Amino acid sequence: MHKKPPVYRDCHGVPVKYEINRTFDIKGPEDVAKMGIATYNNLCRRIVMRYAQEWEDVVDRMGRWIDFRRDYKRMYPWFMESVCMNKEIIQYLRIKIFFRVTVMPYSMGCCTPLSNFDAGQNYKDTDDPVVWVSSPLTDDPTVKLVACTTTPWTLPSNLALCVNPNSIYPDSYQILESFKGSHLKEMHYTPLFPYFANVKTAFRILCDDYVTEDRGTGVVHQAPYFGEDDYRVCLAHGVINKDAASVICPIDAQCRFTAEVTDFQGQNVKDADKPIIKYLKEAKRLIHQAVGKHSYPFCWRSDTPLIYRAVSSWFVRVEGMIDRLLANNSKTYWVPDFVKEKRFANWLRDARDLAISRNRYWGNPMPLWISDDGHEVVCVGSIEELKQLSGVSVDDIHREFVDQITIPSKLGKGLLRRIPEVFDCWFESGSMPYAQVHYPFDGRRTFTDTFPADFIAEGIDQTRGWFYTLLVISTTLFDQPPFKNLIV
């Protein structure tokens, strides 16, 4: 029987970062800056190695046959080079990668965005404030729309209201007139707060079918940089645009209001709910308040509430390859098969472009060097190519070793600097089939002989995580599934 090298998947993941932050009382990026990235990353490196030894001891005691002498860890430079610096990946990134602002689940406790599949792991029933607020129409202040929300902290960032174009909106007390929501489209209203009143495209009534009549008032407040539907609707109606410089997201990495929101500056968004409600009451914009119980996502690691917020991220185009993903999935055998045919296939049919970058320190740096004006981009294809382009030789490509390296421009644009983002660790785990043998730099024969894998086995929670990224990357690079059989 062949001994299998062990997998150390969480080397660059949130668990390591969270434990270091908790141990050293690191609250946000400013604390890491004071400590220094090199010191911070070395702490992360040490804790991985400590747990690696503990794991080896336990596995040996269990009698599991593992070849620890040929192990690989995702923090090994050769593994990292295969993930982000091989020519096949570079060609893939040049075609597929793009940069945009999007709304993502964000952990207040870990000060980092999470993937959509991470965000679904820890829902809890929780009591939250519910408020009903009024918005007088600009042309006739006696007419007021009433919106309901369970996130009062998003109201200072309100830029629009949304109604269903086909719903009938009567007055619930005395019916003076009934009309479809489309009748209200493009009417203007008075902002709830003064902070962003100068946004010329804002404070309009929009129409979209996602608004329903079965809850709330049928009028949904829109804070486009704090909600996925809000962002989609406001983008479609021109309230906002894709320009990252125009983003209205007045909170910092620790989810505290910034100076733009003067009345609540420095307050954590969830702690600011009560002061915001008090402000609305004094401004005579609060119609009613209550407490409601609903299911709400919490960070699975820090157990703090997740919020949705705007994050600048690099994406890989996936939406155009759904048919190929489904075709490759059909070539695999799963036990039980309903997970393949239902849970996984349904996830693939609704696949969205994949966010692959994170604003973290301990991770696999993205190999993109960009000019100050953003018009010249170099995607570095290996550690050796980095040396040729920059004149600097490195043995490790973590941030503390590569962030200061610059590349002279070939277009007369001065020096190119690396972007600060690192790869999401799900991208690393999806790269495992070839990165574990340092393909394509080494191990070509081994990779050819062992890919796709005969079988893999993992928990059902990996359906939208590891199984998904494995299939996306394998389909893009090799147009075949990464495994033949899968046991869930």
UniProtKB/TrEMBL annotation:
UniProt KW keywords: Aminoacyl-tRNA synthetase, ATP-binding, Ligase, Nucleotide-binding, Protein biosynthesis
A Pfam family hit: tRNA-synt_1
Keyword ATP-binding among record annotations: yes
Gene Ontology terms describing biological process: isoleucyl-tRNA aminoacylation
Domain Aminoacyl-tRNA synthetase class Ia: 10-488
Recorded GO MF terms: aminoacyl-tRNA deacylase activity; ATP binding; isoleucine-tRNA ligase activity
EC number of this enzyme: 6.1.1.5
Keyword Ligase: yes
Reactions listed under catalytic activity: tRNA(Ile) + L-isoleucine + ATP = L-isoleucyl-tRNA(Ile) + AMP + diphosphate
Similarity annotation: Belongs to the class-I aminoacyl-tRNA synthetase family.
Record protein name field: isoleucine--tRNA ligase
